UniProtKB/TrEMBL annotation:
It catalyses: (R)-lactate + A = pyruvate + AH2; glycolate + A = glyoxylate + AH2. Residues 3-34 form the 4Fe-4S ferredoxin-type domain. InterPro entries: 4Fe4S_Fe-S-bd, 4Fe4S_Fe_S_CS, Cys_rich_dom, Glc_ox_4Fe-4S, Helical_ferredxn. Component of a complex that catalyzes the oxidation of glycolate to glyoxylate. Gene3D superfamilies: Alpha-helical ferredoxin (1.10.1060.10). Keywords: 4Fe-4S, Electron transport, Iron, Iron-sulfur, Metal-binding, Repeat, Transport. Its cofactor is [4Fe-4S] cluster. Its EC number is 1.1.99.14. This is Glycolate oxidase iron-sulfur subunit.
Length: 443
């Protein structure tokens, strides 16, 4: 779909301005060009030949978080995030694709082993303080001009990947019959490996077997840059991998991956055979939050112990210490990843799961469903703007006085942990799988 063929959708905007209150970028900048109404006016200007395709469009097109909050507040349900993403694809065709992105999308993301090697090189450079080494490899330049400011977002990187430790293959579980496929997103694989281990152990408790899938990147990163060729290439590789599996369900613990895997039929809507393949796999795809919630509804086993988890979280607040006569429970709050709450309509499920954990006091955070500003690599490409959005989230978090902030997207986890460090808070950030493991320390 081009900007021209999106005219009807763009023209649905009646300029009412109801989107302003919901847009994190508008609330951070106050600029009309940063809100849905302004972005749509710009797209309309392109169609009506009042605006040229040139580099001036880069900021209005690429500062959108793609969070979808504007659509939720829009009576006409104008899908601004999708329209902006489509326009990015056209921008890259007409104005030019950045070569550094090609390196990432074409030569690293399709090949998990290469990604592991690259991540290890970055980790070596970063953890030894020699980030120039990684820069020299061209691995970090991908993120552009804001990288020097953004380098502190990830303090240390693990030296091994999740699938370097737990290789793709079939593992026996303790459940009766369910055969589970575990889709390992890039963020879990190379950064949040403790969350991956917690999910893996939780899935083994539920399934007769757990297959760690030899998948590649889901395709969301090139999609957000408007690179449809590489998006489809990655999606096809994953569909090939899914077709070889003998599983009943495919679970992922990255809400961004889950949301995007569910989008494959839409990606392939004009590609007959791939469209059919994507539709066939669609009912199998589950966000781990949905999966855990459904399981929780079906059977309250209450003993998802994750032994390997405890070492990694020795510094976490000790709920058990707070319990006992008159002692307070651990205060837990939740951040909704955009790709869960708007991408998959997952809202109550994580809250229900968390509220049932003995020893937990769940405290709702204001604007919990607002984007944290992480938005994939947004924090690396638009550091200052991303931090303004994050500051709002941190101010809301402070008011909860939460010991633990739970979420289900590795990019959000990184961003939130950085905000907590920058604001000098004590709150710990857990993936929901980790929280379920951690609950055993609360007894
Ligand atoms: S709320 Fe919808 S219709 Fe109103 S200005 Fe925003 S995008 Fe346009
Ligand atoms: S998708 Fe999010 S950042 Fe983009 S215009 Fe809509 S509310 Fe603003």
């Amino acid at each position: 779909m081009t900007v021209l063929t999106s005219y009807d959708a763009i023209a649905k905007c009646n300029k009412c301005g109801f989107c302003h209150v919901a847009c994190p970028i508008f609330r951070a900048t106050g600029h009309e060009s940063g809100v849905a109404r302004g972005r749509l006016a710009m797209l309309r200007g392109i169609i009506e030949k009042r605006v040229e395709w040139d580099e001036e469009l880069e900021d209005p097109l690429f500062t959108c978080l793609g969070c979808g909050a504007c659509t939720t507040n829009c009576f006409g349900k104008v899908p601004t995030a999708d329209l902006v993403l489509n326009a990015r694809a056209e921008y890259l065709d007409k104005v030019g694709k950045k070569p550094a992105h090609r390196l990432l999308f074409e030569h690293l993301l399709p090949y998990p082993k290469r990604l592991h090697v690259a991540a290890r090189a970055v980790a070596l450079g970063k953890n030894s303080g020699a980030s120039k080494v990684a820069n020299a490899l061209g691995l970090l330049r991908i993120f552009g001009r804001d990288l020097p400011k953004a380098e502190g977002i990830v303090d240390k990187l693990p030296m091994s990947s999740f699938r370097g430790t737990i290789k793709p293959g079939v593992y026996p579980g303790q459940g009766d019959k369910l055969k589970i496929g575990y889709f390992v997103g890039c963020g879990i694989d190379v950064i949040q490996i403790q969350a991956g281990k917690a999910t893996f152990e939780a899935l083994k408790k539920k399934g007769k077997s757990v297959t760690v899938i030899d998948n590649c990147c889901c395709g969301l990163p090139p999609y957000t840059y408007g690179d449809m060729d590489n998006t489809k290439m990655l999606a096809r590789k994953n569909l090939d991998a899914f077709e070889k599996l003998d599983v009943d369900v495919i679970v992922t613990d990255c809400s961004s991956c889950a949301s995007f895997l569910k989008k494959y039929p839409k990606i392939f809507k004009d590609d007959g055979r791939d469209y059919e393949r994507a539709n066939k796999e669609l009912p199998m795809i589950k966000d781990v939050v949905e999966f855990l919630y459904a399981d929780d509804q079906g059977q309250r086993s209450g003993d998802e112990t994750v032994s390997s988890y405890h070492d990694a979280h020795a510094a976490a607040p000790k709920g058990g210490e707070k319990k006992g006569a008159g002692a307070a429970a651990v205060i837990v709050t939740y951040h909704d990843p955009c790709h869960a709450v708007r991408g998959q309509n997952i809202k109550n499920e994580p809250r229900e799961v968390l509220k049932k954990i003995p020893g937990v006091t769940f405290r709702e955070m204001a604007e919990a469903d607002w984007c944290c500003g992480g938005a994939g690599s947004y924090a690396l490409t638009h550091y200052d703007l991303s931090q303004k959005v994050l500051d709002r989230k941190m101010n809301n978090l402070k008011k909860t006085e939460a010991d633990i902030l739970v979420t289900s997207c590795p990019a959000c986890m990184i961003q939130l942990a950085y905000g907590i460090k920058r604001h000098g808070l004590k709150t710990k950030v857990f993936h929901i799988s980790e929280m379920l493991a951690y609950k055993d320390t609360l007894h």
